[in-house]
Amino acid sequence: MFFRDLDGNLRCGLPDFNLEGGRVKKWAIKDLSYFIGGRDVDLPDNVWDLEIQEAFEEWEAVADLRFSRCNNKEEAHIVIEIGEGEESHFDGAGGTLAWAYLPPSDSYNGQLLMKFDIAEFWITAPSQPGILLKNVAAHEIGHILGLNHSDQDGALMSPHYDKNIAEPQEIDDISRIQELYGNPNKETIECLLKKKKKREIRREKRREKSAQRKEGNGESTK
């Protein structure tokens, strides 16, 4: 979860602690399913789902993990919901952005919850005003996978929200997740690269169509 610290920076609310010498928390399996039970109206449903999917894929690209979306909440390992107010442990816009549970043991095989605050304004591009959904989702997924906070500035698992960091970083995140689950296999990386390339092509086409519509309406595209 994230909140504003005394300096006004958005900071994850999960306590900082060191698991060295303590009990490792991780999943007993490497094929995890997730269920999206709620979406904020800030983004179209398909865009929300894609941002969540890409956040999972960032971890899949650096560790021996596989994520799949399922349509049955009861069968999912990870449930993604939205909420608002005290009953969902949120405190309004600019406060806690999202939260997620860590695995409670070193070989967990149950179900964990992740929630996003609908009081926030969720976005998909750094140039927009608001909070980047993928960045926050990727951070919270790190917790769900068993990672505590990093003490390295610039790491995805740093306690502070950074609009420029949406994927695990070599300085800390990648080595730690690989210690828990191992390295990704070659086939997974190749598949993810193909999917990423296709998404980039689709996004470029959407940008071109948007620019054409603006030109047709006499709007500036600069």
Describe what is shown at a glance.
It contains four helices and nine strands. It has 222 residues and is an alpha/beta fold.
Strand count, sense and closure of the main sheet? 5 strands, mixed
Provide the CATH top-level class: Alpha Beta
What order do the SSEs take from the amino end to the carboxyl end, as H and E? Answer: EEEHEEEEEEHHH
CATH superfamily: Collagenase (Catalytic Domain)
The computed structural class is alpha/beta
Using the coordinates shown, work out and report the CATH topology. Collagenase (Catalytic Domain)
Count of beta strands: 9
Please estimate the helix content: 25-40%
The Rg value, from CA coordinates, equals: 18 Å
Poorly predicted regions: 3-8, 15-21
Distance between the termini: 36 Å
Structural commentary:
Helix 1 (45-60) packs across helix 2. Helix 1 links the parallel strand 3 (31-36) and strand 4. The strands form 3 sheets. Strands 4-3-5-7-6 form a 5-stranded mixed sheet, covered by helices on one side. It has 222 residues and is an alpha/beta fold. It has one domain (2-184): Collagenase (Catalytic Domain) (3-Layer(aba) Sandwich). The longest helix has 31 residues, at 186-216. The chain is built from 4 helices and 9 strands. Residues 3-8 and 15-21 have low confidence and may be disordered.
